[in-house]
Design a protein that fits this description.
The structure is a single chain. By secondary structure, the protein is mainly α. The protein has one domain. It is built from 15 helices and no strands. The protein is globular, with a radius of gyration of 20 Å. It starts with a helix and ends with a helix.
Amino acid sequence: MSESRGAIFLRFLRFGALAWGGPAAQIAMVRHECVEEERWMDEEEFARTLAVYQVLPGPEAHELCVHLGMVRGGRPGGFLAGLGFMLPGLILMVALSALYVEVGVDQDLFYGLQAAVAALVAMAVVRLGRAFVTDRALAALAVAAFAATLFLGANFLLVLALAGLAYWTWRRLPLGGAASVSPLGVLVLAAAVPLGASVFWVGLQTGLLTFGGAYTAVPFLQERAVDGHGWLTEDEFLDGLAISGILPAPLIIFSTFVGYLAGGLGASLLMTLGVFLPAFLFPLFLHERLVAVAGDDRLRPFLLGVAAAVVGLIAAVTVDLLDASVPDVPSALLALGAFAVLYRVHGKLTVLWVMLGCGLLGALLQLTVL
């Protein structure tokens, strides 16, 4: 049974306006209404679809919305569902990015928010590690990716490719011999391209290469935007992550902030377009093929190796974030407290309350003690 395009857009616009709490809370909200109450698909099909988008690139909550919209209203319905889901967070992030740049924001608030961001990313390492690091070989690849990234500055894409190939080889050796991953250096040639094209290209790479959810975008965008292009500083990057943590949107919306600091409103929209383009195209045009690829036993070891390397990459970024965002004992205590709450409490709004609480406590400490 189909639904009008306007109704689909408004339903997912409402989802987007209520999308606090990270991907787990967003997926639970959409599942409750569209699967349990409305019966757009059965539980088995929903679980199978979710498994596909958890392995493949892009924000899985957004891709699920696009797929559900397509189930209800064809490809136009899928496009409108994805647009509605992302629109509230996009508008809020553009507005806050402009406020951050043009007016300035009280940095006392970001003292606590940055500590909470480090805890949030560290929790992502735990969550993704439980999901993807399921044997000793994958654990070794995660550790190798962590070391290669943190200590040797190995290229992001090279680490992922080598980890995928290493685990694919391991699974095909008769005795499961260990494949070693040797960090290699690469030469990066900076091409003289207009800023808009460069921003869009970085956004598109982010959308295509963030396996395992939006947290993979953190190390990739940090490498490209901060270390590579110098579009913003490490502290500004952390501030963007902090802002995204209090918005009703997928975490990947922090890329809009990165684009804004790179070149204003136009660059922020180009960055967002690049990041979200695969998340629209995959469900709309390639869903059946992606289901087949994700379930292909010949390719699955490569994807698992890549996912394990992603855990190592995010762990390396967590170390960098802790170094930048935890300069003293009070901020360390805030980060530890935030991590403990995130680890023990799994409510829909836990992330939001942790971010707001750390922000307010940090501001209070700055005003009274520090």
